[in-house]
Specification:
mainly alpha, 0% strand, globular
């Protein structure tokens, strides 16, 4: 690897890591922000929802931006936006300023992941991309995993402002390194983005994400849940139709003519949903039924994050040697096994049991997540790669929102069902509390059982993967 390529890779990974880490901080900090700023739960959720919607609007445009502007300029703009957003949020004394800073952070982070993946896919030969994507996989899984633990420690000893202020010097240093080290070469592409496509995309993905993300709290019958989803699907249909009619589409959905890319996308979506099941349900179980705090919960999940961080680059190297199929099948089978194990929780389940099973689950994710995405992107031509990375990033967000809403709704509905089944037989308060506790545990178990269906679909799809595929299906062979 050339020293300039290595430097660029380190800079991109560092920027993406801290952006994802800061995002992971927020889940633990929301309660503290509510208390300090005297705002409601529905108001503080815009810290997450607003950030997500900004990403939903901007990520689909990244294919165009990566073809139009230099890596250096895009990176500096992204880190600069994150720097400004972190500063505003860190000094904010009102929710308005805090939310503004958070939205500016969202502008900066939207580009970082697809930009990093695009660089990896265009700077390394296909037979080495697995190893590089394995390194990038550390960012995707490790930062979100350690975020809650670190956030809990900082909030316990300082305040939520520190979560943003600590990012200011870090992003400042990363910006300076990028300024002096990244390539200034500007692409020769001179196209103009289709404004109508941007509008369709913004309404499509923001509607779908907002609707599914609201379902867990509001319920599926709420107008603010089903209406955004319906409108989002309509605009998504309009977006796809328009892209096929344009000579130079903003998002080239023609990449789905590659059967292996389409298959990889489907497996990616199911894998994200399966991944979210443990990342959401296990913390809820530990905190709601066993009374643990955020920091204690994070420490139980930390071994899994460390194991995933160790195994991601190893899985990447294995991918380069044997391809995706074997790795993905092994990973999905481990996911199925750990899902069954998590579907049998009770109030006496030990922290050690949860830590071990969760670690095995994170091991399985290292075998699936980056290898399957790399496999799909390897089937695309160089011109199609920016579209593939943009669609992958959007797909991860949409699948995450869908997975979260489905699993939470299953947990809530099944909890109510279990309570209703025996509520009439309970009279004293102590028994009622025990009933609520047991019903909550059963609800979590049922949600994991629902995940089994998703994992089963992923396993069946994985059987159709090619063992090794370094040549783009739509790319003509060299003469």
């Amino acid at each position: 690897m050339k020293s300039s390529t290595k430097t660029t890779l380190i800079v991109l990974i560092t920027g993406a890591f801290f952006a994802l880490l800061n995002n992971a901080f927020l889940n633990v900090a929301l309660a503290e922000i509510m208390h300090d700023l005297s705002i409601s739960e529905s108001t503080v959720q815009w810290m997450t929802t607003g950030y997500m919607l900004v990403n939903a609007i901007l990520v689909p445009t990244t294919a165009f931006l990566m073809k139009k502007y230099s890596l250096r300029n895009l990176f500096l703009m992204s880190i600069g936006s994150f720097f400004i957003g972190s500063l505003l949020a860190g000094v904010a004394g009102s929710f308005g300023l805090l939310l503004t800073g958070r939205l500016i952070q969202g502008v900066g982070s939207a580009l970082l992941m697809p930009m990093g993946m695009f660089y990896l896919m265009t700077s390394f030969p296909k037979e080495k991309r697995g190893s590089m994507m394995g390194l990038f996989g550390i960012v995707i899984m490790f930062a979100p995993a350690i975020g809650p633990t670190l956030s809990g420690f900082l909030i316990e000893h300082y305040s939520w402002n520190v979560l943003f202020l600590m990012m200011v010097p870090i992003m400042g240093i990363v910006w300076l390194i990028g300024f002096f080290s990244l390539d200034k070469t500007k692409p020769s592409y001179n196209g103009i983005i289709d404004v109508i496509s941007v509008i369709f995309s913004a309404f499509a993905f923001s509607g779908i994400l907002y609707g599914f993300s609201s379902a867990g709290d509001k319920g599926w019958g709420d107008t603010f849940v089903w209406l955004p989803i319906v409108l989002g699907c309509i605009f998504l249909t309009l977006l796809i139709i328009r892209q096929f009619r344009l000579d130079d589409p903003m998002l080239d959905f023609g990449i789905y003519k590659s059967s292996q890319y389409a298959l990889a996308s489907a497996i990616t979506a199911t894998n994200v949903i399966a991944m979210y099941s443990a990342m959401i349900l296990i913390p809820l179980f530990l905190q709601n039924t066993q009374g643990l705090g955020a920091m204690e919960t994070g420490l139980i999940l930390l071994p899994g994050a460390i194991l995933n961080g160790i195994m991601s680059p190893i899985a990447g190297r294995l991918f380069d040697k044997i391809g995706a199929k074997t790795l993905v099948l092994i990973g999905v089978m481990i996911t199925i096994g750990t899902t069954i194990a998590f579907a049998q929780l009770d109030e006496n389940t030990s922290s050690t049991y949860i830590a071990v099973v969760y670690a095995l689950r994170m091991l399985s994710m290292s075998f699936v997540s980056m290898p399957i995405q790399t496999h799909g992107l390897n089937t695309l031509t160089t011109d199609q790669t920016p579209h593939g990375t943009a669609i992958n990033s959007t797909l991860n967000q949409v699948a995450g929102a869908i997975g979260t809403s489905l699993l939470v709704s299953v947990m809530v509905s099944r909890t109510k069902t279990h309570m209703a089944a025996v509520a009439s037989q309970v009279t004293d308060q102590a028994s009622q509390q025990q009933l609520m506790l047991q019903s909550s545990i059963n609800g979590v178990n049922d949600a994991f059982l629902a995940t089994l269906i998703v994992s089963g679909i992923a396993f069946i799809l994985s059987l159709f993967l090619k063992k090794k595929n370094f040549k783009a299906e739509s790319e003509p062979a060299a003469s």
